[in-house]
Write a structure and sequence with these properties.
Four copies of one chain form a homotetramer.
Chain A lengths: L2 H4 L4 E5 L3 E8 L10 E4 L14 E6 L5 E5 L26 E11 L3 E4 L5 H14 L4 H18 L6 H26 L2 E2 L5 E2 L2 H26 L2 H4 L3 H5 L4 H7 L8 H15 L4 H10 L4 H11 L2 H11 L8
Antiparallel strand pairs in A: 1-2, 2-6, 3-4, 4-7, 5-6, 8-9
Chain lengths: ~325, ~325, ~325, ~325
């Protein structure tokens, strides 16, 4: 089946002198609702039958004809509970949305591609090169989770146990690997003909590949350091207001000088980032954002100069003569 | 600080001719609320000052003086939403609770240990030997998640892609490793003096150690196969009842003959088991139940006959003479 | 190309009243030179054009027409050096050979398959089921390497360092995983129509899959515990006889009461098992013997009842109704 | 015991107006024999009793009083065999040596530290910062091994099999991770007071930590792609000169247009790099050079600003107030 027969991808449905009208849907638009503009673009290689799908343009998020379907995620309704005791992250959360375009107008001045289908795959590839490198941001989120794990280890009175220290080292090693592969991709950036800079494609994909895996292991270790309480602690209402509140505060104390309120708060943050509201961003979105894991592996394969490496091996093994 | 000074562990506070009264708390009691009886036992090595803590007894769950604090977990309130569209698992969930005992009576006939502190550590060790092997049950849960991943791969029309097939193999390899190490522990069971059988301690700990890690990797791969929609799909109300319902059903269709309702249902199950209500049981409880990961490593170290292995090496390397 | 056109696989080239004559080659025959008999069998699915390749028979290893090409392996000539200082394993080594059959006769009484090509793939599958489970033997070799690692840690005076203890636990966990998956495969064995027993195919393949990977990690950790000396120590002649012998014994001492001769011996054993003569058996042969890693993955895929697992998931997610 | 009592570390034993005389040993000196100069330095934190050990100086490799003990390594004697058929790498190999200094003179102009024991630990730390980052060189060796694996996959006719392609991607991902973390460490370099530049310590240790592990996995995958022949092929003499030479060339052919000589050559290179002469450099030296794995973990722990990360977590969880 051809793309143009599916009628679900975004496409031009009407052209006027002033611009174009588009129709279709975009799934998985991270953070679109708190943005000012959306830039739509094709996400696949296109053929000459797909000219109407070769549209890139900027659209204000409140343009006429757009409907946002707010994605439903783990623990989303907790944020709206009175008291906000169990929210985990007191300030921030993200969102995913599906966006449906019903004859949305893009004026000429905001159109950047219009029918040039032959550039669609290059555009996608360049976009993912930038985008996959930008996943270095997850190492910042990782810093928070590492900090939370170190804090609960301290509250539990075990931060000097050798296996705890080693697990914190492991978390950092994984997190810095994401960071380092990301910035290395920029270090090896090169300028395009137009004078813009683009980062290294191979290393951007290596970075994103780590993001799809190490975040989960960091999350697992965070739960390990948290202790079982992260899965069994009482609700904030029971803990703070209920008739058992005093008992709970007594029984849930950790180390001597740590109050149980703080212990519960840091545990809720770890829950939030590994099972709850922000786990979708730290884990699931790390997996699929900017392309699912296999997409990076395909690109790593394309970008590696395997023939050069074969030549190295053939020379050293004596299969081909080395130049003098 | 001594245990007997803490006043938080369960202990005997009064003895009568008919039995004992106990006070204290038990955290993390998986499934206690849907049980008929609780058996309480010490969980630490005890000294002669801890005689009052050396209590093992059976208590009906509705005995006077017991309070249950129901643990608050990811997505718990979803089950109570009208429509139950987003519940994921239509039938089952578990629960953790904290149990507070306020002068709870245990009659003599239900007391199995009373002050014999010197057997406390042996009791704990035998209990964990049985208990850690019993975590083979998580391979049954793993079967469900593997089935869900295979189903969504089919619905997405990619079940014949080689990387998808390989990921399903990996999930199964990990899951069967949990299963096989568990049953191997039983195979090597031995009888105690009393005629009871006890399974192999070393292999029980190896089994549990895999449970603390491979479940998370199985969960990660399940999310990989699910695709990004697992983190961005609309709420059941939007999908089934709202004004955009028709559009959503159109845009969220997978493979030709699969209806989008089924696709959403299987995705909600994967969400449930990796981020939501049952993720606590499949992941967090796998990590900490029957002892956190380091507890198994300590026990593996104790149970391995390292001196025998050293002798093997010393003989083969010629450090010590082999017997003829 | 068809097998029958290749003329390299073993095949019947002449039939007489008393038996058959075979020609061709068998590569990678582990231990054939120290065996009494060889049993040859097809290793591929065969078609009706391959009848001459469907031959199973027993042949004495010194039968006329057989030539063995002894495989050349890492450090093979060391065993023949005077002094045998650097041999590592004082008693044992293995060998691989290629066997070339030039009109070798198999009498009728030793022929077990003769042209029944349709059973060739079943035969291969049953053989690998037995054979892959038998790789549990590598956990015995692993015991030696773990013992060697524990010994050198002791000699280096670091056996109580927490990271050393943890690495020994990891080695044991990996080694016992190989062991446990192997014996679990036997535990689930079943009887064939003939009354023979055959072990579980799925678990046999899971066992072998671990053998292809965990042995390498055990080897890596052994080298870690060995310290750099495993890659830099002097030859046995320099150490024991040369003019620098006294200096070397002084400078290469480990812990106080350990003599440097023993330290060098255990290091040579670790070298032997991870880089040298027995590394081929412990590592390379673990990888490829009884089928290379991908062969097990294909078989795991075939043996898992994925449809049953899909049904579990469809029932729990509400896609299909559960039976009452 | 104090260092100064051991008399094995290098130390000053006599001071004259023109310089100092040193005595002691240095183990594991990679490549010292093909160098022009050695720079000796302390390798431990020193106390005020260790002033004589606080010596840094440059020494020509052929200075009077130096003895080199050439380390004995896997397959070292193969290079000296006639024909060099089985050498694997036709041109290169490395060496480790132990160096014994017996009253070796260092003139004043080549002395860079002389008794300033309080700077010893800073010196060691800076040295390892540079040195661990320099292990990025192993990604160059990795390129050769990846090339060899890709070449044998081609010769075996399986380079288009999906699992082969995926394994090559994995090798590259691991190899590029070493590369990227290394160059990222340089990117974040900073200038010292003297105007020299020093690379980032944390990322240098992350780089080296990957080198200690990923090289082994790359080696394992290379052996996987090689096939069993890498452990069982005949000696070069049998293959090239012996009476069975013709048969062997026939039976060991891979893909149609590939001659068996080339196949054997590339397999010998893989053997050389994973089990033989260069495996010591690619594997063992990657593990222990510039400090064994645990040394990097200690340094990662020191260099991470864990208090900053704890603060992030405490702010987001509401334990401490965020600044406005």
């Amino acid at each position: 089946m051809y793309i143009y027969e599916l009628l679900i991808y975004l496409r031009i449905v009407k052209r006027t002198e002033d611009g174009v009208y588009v129709k279709g849907a975009k799934a998985h638009q991270t953070g679109c609702i708190n943005s000012h503009w959306m830039v739509v673009m094709p996400t696949l290689r296109l053929s000459d039958k797909d000219k109407d799908y070769a549209i890139v343009g900027a659209i204000p998020v409140d343009a006429e004809g757009i409907t946002y379907i707010y994605g439903r995620q783990s623990c989303d309704t907790r944020s709206m509970e009175p008291g906000e005791y169990d929210v985990g992250n007191k300030y921030f959360a993200g969102q995913e949305a599906m966006v449906i375009f019903d004859d949305v107008f893009i004026p000429n001045k905001y159109i950047f591609m219009n029918g040039e289908y032959e550039f669609a795959s290059m555009l996608v590839e360049r976009f993912t090169t930038y985008h996959r490198r930008s996943y270095v941001c997850k190492s910042g989120v990782g810093d928070v989770l590492i900090g939370a794990a170190a804090t609960i280890a301290e509250y539990n009175g075990v931060e000097e146990a050798s296996h705890i220290k080693d697990k914190l080292v492991e978390m950092n090693k994984l997190n810095e690997t994401i960071y380092a592969t990301g910035i290395a991709s920029s270090l090896q950036g090169s300028s395009t003909k137009s004078g813009n800079f683009i980062n290294d494609d191979l290393l951007a994909n290596v970075c994103k590949q780590h993001v799809t895996k190490e975040t989960y292991e960091i999350g697992r270790i965070a739960q390990d350091l948290a202790g079982g309480l992260v899965g069994s602690m009482p609700s904030g209402i029971d803990f703070n207001e209920g008739t058992m509140s005093e008992d709970l505060k007594k029984y849930l104390k950790g180390k001597k000088d740590i109050n149980s309120e703080d212990r519960v708060k840091i545990l809720r943050l770890i829950e939030n980032m590994t099972l709850g509201r922000n786990a979708v961003a730290y884990l699931t979105e790390s997996l699929h954002g900017a392309g699912s894991p296999q997409a990076q592996r395909v690109q790593i394969r394309r970008r590696v100069d395997i023939e050069e490496k074969k030549d190295f091996a053939k020379k050293l093994s004596g299969i081909i003569e080395r130049e003098k």
